[in-house]
Structures are given as C-alpha cells and as structure tokens.
Amino acid sequence: MNKLFLLLQLLIVSQLQAQQKPLYDDKFPDAVQVLNFGTFHMGYTPDANSVEFDEHNKKNQEDVHKVAKMLAEFKPTVIIIEDLPENNHLIQKAYQDYLNNPKMKFKNPSEIELLAFELGRLSKTTRIYGIDHQMGYNYMIGSQVKGKVNDNTYERYFDWVEKEEQKMNYDNLSLLDKLKVDNHPQYLDFLLNVNADVLTYVSTKGNYEGADEASKYYHRNLRMYSNLNQIEFKAGDRVFILMGASHTAFFNDFMKRSPKYKLVDPFLYLK
What we know:
By secondary structure, the chain is an alpha/beta fold. It has one domain. A five-stranded parallel sheet has the order 3-2-4-1-5, with helices on both faces. It is globular and about 60 Å long. The two termini are about 40 Å apart.
C-alpha cells in the first residue's frame, strides 16, 4: 500500500513538473472580461448545415429563456451579436422595443431575439452591437476538385466525423445539452477544422484550391474580430458575445492571444 501511495505521489509530481509556467504576463491588468458563447442558429440561416429548431414553439422559447437566466449571472454590460454593424440602429430599436414589452412577438425570431435580448433584459444591459461581416466561400470545394494530389485525409475525416456525430446523437439532445456541445473545446476545434483547416488537404498539383477557400473563412472571421475591436469598451465592462459556434471557435483563438481580452469559461454558467 505504501509503495502504491509513493508511486501515485511521484506521478502527480511529474505531471505538475511537466506543466510549463508562463514566461510572462500576457494580459493587460485591465483586460476586458469576455464570455464568448457559441450557438446553433435558432432561426433561418443560409448556412449549409442547420439544426432543426422551431423558434416559434413556446416550450423552445421557454428553454432558451432558462439558458438566458443562467448566462445572466455573468452580468454583461455589453452584448455582441452576429449581425452587421450597419444594422446597429435597427438592433437598438428592436432591443428597446423588447425591453418595453418582453412579451412581444417577433415575426422571425433567432438566437438574437430569443437569447441575446432576454439576457440583456435580465442583466439590464443597455449596449448591444452587431459585428458580422459577410464573405462568401465554397463549403463544397472538397468534393468538387478533380485530380487531387493529396491523400484521402479529407474523405476519411468526414466519414469518421459522421460516425462520431451519430454516437453523439446531437439532434435529440435537450437545448441546454446542445449548447454544452456547441461550447465544448473539442467541438470548437472540430468547427475550425471542418470549416477551414481540413480544406488544406484539397488541391491539385502546384495549386491551393482548398487552402484558398479556407483563407476566405479566416478572412471573414478576422474582419468580424476587427469590427469588435472598433467598439469602445469602458473600464469594468463585461462583454457577452453570441454567434454561430464556428465564429466562437475563431474568436476563442484570437482572444487567447490578445492582451486586451480575458476569456471567461461558459461552463461556469451552463449548469
């Protein structure tokens, strides 16, 4: 028993020693607290992949509001959504209308009206901004390029992903459990891969068809991030960002390296 105890102690010590200490502080002392939250699109979306969700169903709306109540514990002072900055005046008006009448009905509600507006109401948030930037890219190029010189990594990856998704049974999960998947670090890495990185395995000799398409999605997300960085934040601001989860994945990467922002774990609130 003593030998086993000593062995366990040695294993713990070796694991602790393997963890590298930071070389220096990489965040400003007044770094802005950010809860970067990913979701599936709850209303109409032109995206190639969508989740079956009836945004007009009362039970679904109640479930979204329960999640909003959880996330309101973060107490955001600013809410960021996936809408174009040029629509900010319309967003503010719609949000103010909702604050004046939380029981109002939206013709075509999405996660913005259902989740962001209710979260803002509960948190008494006054500032809400869109940061989206539209850029097209070809989701399907991997199956369209003929005469690829790469190995079959692209095809193997999607076959494997399909099997893993079947095990996860995402479509039959509760709303809360879907959102837990959407914000899981491994799933966010998957979204980076499936939307961009895996396309680098698609090319003909001497060309970069897949990589060029992947760069367009990186480009879009970088521009969205630039839109965020054009917003003036005040000392003590707490920022909640609500976007489709693939954008959340990119923003997590950007913000981890940014001295200005400090990410807050969404699982502190998703309970």
